[in-house]
Amino acid sequence: MRQLVYPENDEDRISRQLIEAALSGDEQAVLEALEHELVDVNYRGTVSLRVKYTDSIQREEVADEVKFDYQEFRTDVTPLFAAAHLGHIGITKKLLTVGADVNQKLFRGFATTAASREGHHQVLDLLLRAGAQQEAVEDALLEACLYGHVKAAELLIGSEMTRPDVLAQALVHASSRGFVDVVATLIKSGVDIDSWHRVLLRSAKPMLYANIDCTPLIAAIVGRQTAVVDYLLQAGAKTGCKASLGAWSWDSGSGEELRVGAGLGEPYNEAWCAVEYWESSGHILTSLLKHLSPDSVHNGRTLICHAILCRNMPAMQLILDAGADAEFLMQARDGQERPLHYAARSGWLPAVKVLIDHVCSVDAITESKDSALMICAKHKYWDCFEELLAAGADLGIQNSSGQSAITIAEGNGYGSGVQKIIWNAIVKGSKVRSTDPEVFSALHVAAKAGDLQVLQKLLEQGDIDVNVQDKYGYTAAMLAVGEGHLEAFKLLLYAGADIGMKSKKGETAVALARNGTLERLEWILLDAILANVLKSDEFQVLHFAARRGHLEVLTQLVKRGCAVNGLDEDGYTPLMLSAREGHADAVKLLLLAGADTSLTNGRGETALSLAQKHSASKAAENIILDYLAKKFVLAGGQVSKHTRQGKGKPHMKNLSMLKSGVLCWGRSRRRNVICREAALGPSEKLQRNRRRRGDADKPGVFRIVTNKGREVHFEASSQSNAELWVRGINLLSAEVRVPNGSDRGPGAGA
């Protein structure tokens, strides 16, 4: 037979025809091509191939979505690869029988890879039976796990030609993509459920695109694959494995958190991973917390702290609901602290609110005795400060440096701002608390500022002590008076402020009044007494009314039984003050109420001497003199009585005057007379008669004239007493006149 000689390129042409026949699925054309002696059954040719591809699309807080699609590629193929890719069983069998190489590797893998990728299980089975070797089987298995083909995975695992590390890689891939059936198949086939492998993990939040050494469980958590997580946990996957997935690192020296980027932080366990790579339903973290403690610690921090650091409120709420200890002591740069301190230092308001809602102690302190309120003030997180304040955080705590939250805020230049925060909290109805008024007292600050709205709100709370003293011994009432805020003082007074309390310097509220406010202050106190808010003995109200000459008030106070002879801090009685100011009517009222004219102050002054010295008007002086004179005459006393118009020897008599107007110095009717008038000094006749005796000008002589015109002379012990006798006799005589002009009253004689 003549041997045909073909051109050099006929082999390529015929082999390409074989590839085209395999791609078209034309089994007859394949057979015809195979009849050529020059055909190469393993020929590589470049074609345009429509290839299935997959991609994992990341979304925030939900499971990664695995997307499948087809795309045209220019790639190299063999006839067997083309037949396996398109799933042509008959062509595959024919090619295998004529020696097609099942282990020939192309750019897009082996023929087993193509069959596995496209899900052609029967073709894959043929290829495995045809002697697919380990590399071809392993490549196909990884492809089956990427595309979620369970049947292909079963066939490939059943070949028992895959190494453990490839099986581990396949399991991690399937777990990250959420192919729970593939995962189950691998595990049931004996793949180690806790195997580790380095795979590419991706996430949109936090942003991650890195090759990470991880377990199937961790890969599923990062991919938010809830079904896979549940299956792995039920199948006995071990928890507590640590992977480097975190975006945060901790400085071992300072304890500061450092954001280093996802995948660059210290390794942590699955629960911490689930907090940072959060799945919106919270199902993954809930499942993990059935196997891991919610109080697990990482670098001195708890899971709650990690939720705060990641700003993950749903995770934080879930962890607390799972029984995490909101008071767990954790290690920080300044020693031990609690989650609330950590939340305050981070300045994250939602975390502060949640911890408060879980009834954690808002006054717990760190080792340096800083409270959460102080930490907020240090870092200027005023919204958190306000929230803690409304929750009852104690403003009276001091740290080891002697600082309080208020002094820290003032040191940061925000003293007035903090005061506004406190005022707003009070106005909204919050009870601003301070266990140590020497450190801070809202009542004192409001009183000193004269803020009536805040004061009113504080007093409406009902359980506030209005008489509490600060470190200087001042009450809120004292501060209000000292600053001239008298309306604020009035509020406090009517709320029960004790005006008798003294500061450490011995000052009272009244003593602190400025010159321009003293009168108004006294009127407020006076109104309080009249309204039965203040007891009269708590404030020398009678002295005030007497000094002002307020008759209506004096009348009420006297009726209430106020002590008319009480001394003020300067030793003055109310009568002295009225006399000094010249208030004649007030003097008269006080005298009628029993005021004692004989009392003296520290300078030896009496009401009379003060009236004589200071009063521009003589009215007050005259009233006192009238009172003294009448009292003197009614009381009576010893005088010398002259007889026979001075010719006889004077002798002692007890002279007095009755309220009826009768002047008495004996029992006979001639010694009980009604006077027409009394006058100082002797008559001319007595003076003439006494001159002969040498005592005509002796002081203390006075005379009376009865209604019948009889003249009687007396001599008092002093000139001033003589003046009182004359004044008193004339006053009483004027008050009691006998209607018919007779000088005989009852029992009176000429």
UniProtKB/TrEMBL annotation:
It holds the Pfam family Ank. ANK repeats lie at residues 75-107, 438-471, 472-504, 537-569, 570-602. The keyword Repeat applies. Keywords: ANK repeat, Repeat. This is PH domain-containing protein. It comes from Marchantia polymorpha subsp. ruderalis. The lineage of its organism: Eukaryota, Viridiplantae, Streptophyta, Embryophyta, Marchantiophyta.
